[in-house]
Design goal:
With 198 residues, the chain is an all-alpha fold. The protein is 79% helix and 0% strand. α5 packs antiparallel against α9.
Length: 198
């Protein structure tokens, strides 16, 4: 008898296989057949859990974003200055997205697929906004503590840091020899100097 835990594990197995397929084969190559093969399952087993490829990709996108947002929330819980938070946030995302699994390729595919799938575009937009809100919360704490300038809009500062990271991910996609950590440290320090209270 299949338990709820078994079903969750099977869904996770399918999502992990989907991520590998999308990273390796791109959106068009990541067919249900390819996903099933990668997961070691029948095509019917994939369809048991997901109605179509779009549903699998939306679920994968949600899972990846949820993991990233959980990472951000764990960093938010740590005490310390905003500059340290921002530096560590970038370094964690570099480790996660540009590390051995090449997750940045998955994000590029999500962004590209957003033009083809309204459901995926909606998921991307909602999660991007949630990520911005989480960082903006931390910015507001730093403003209230007098660490950052009082005239700043927390949402704009949050978006600036996220855009900086996204830009590094794009650059890394074209030249993996770029020292993303060094670039992040220098660029985030420069951005911090621009928003720090005097």
């Amino acid at each position: 008898m299949t338990t709820h835990r078994d079903e969750e594990q099977r869904r996770e197995q399918i999502l992990a296989a989907t991520a590998r397929c999308v990273i390796r084969l791109g959106y068009h190559g990541a067919t249900i057949d390819a996903i099933a093969r990668e997961a070691g399952l029948s095509k019917g087993a994939v369809y048991w859990y997901f109605s179509d490829k779009e549903e699998v990709l939306v679920a994968l996108s949600s899972a990846v974003w949820a993991a990233n947002i959980a990472t951000m929330r764990s960093l938010l819980a740590r005490p310390g200055p905003f500059e340290s938070f921002a530096r560590e946030l970038g370094e964690r995302f570099i480790e996660i997205t540009m590390g051995k699994d090449d997750l940045y390729r998955l994000f590029f595919e999500f962004w590209a697929m957003g033009d083809m799938s309204k459901a995926l575009a909606r998921t991307l937009y909602q999660n991007q906004r949630l990520m911005e809100a989480v960082v903006a919360e931390r910015v507001q704490v730093a403003i209230d503590a007098g660490e950052l300038r009082a005239d700043l809009d927390p949402a704009t500062v949050a978006l600036s840091y996220i855009a900086l990271f996204n830009g590094l991910a794009v650059r890394h996609a074209f030249d993996s020899k770029v020292d993303a950590r060094r670039c992040w440290q220098q660029a985030s320090s420069s951005l911090y100097r621009g928003v720090a209270a005097e």
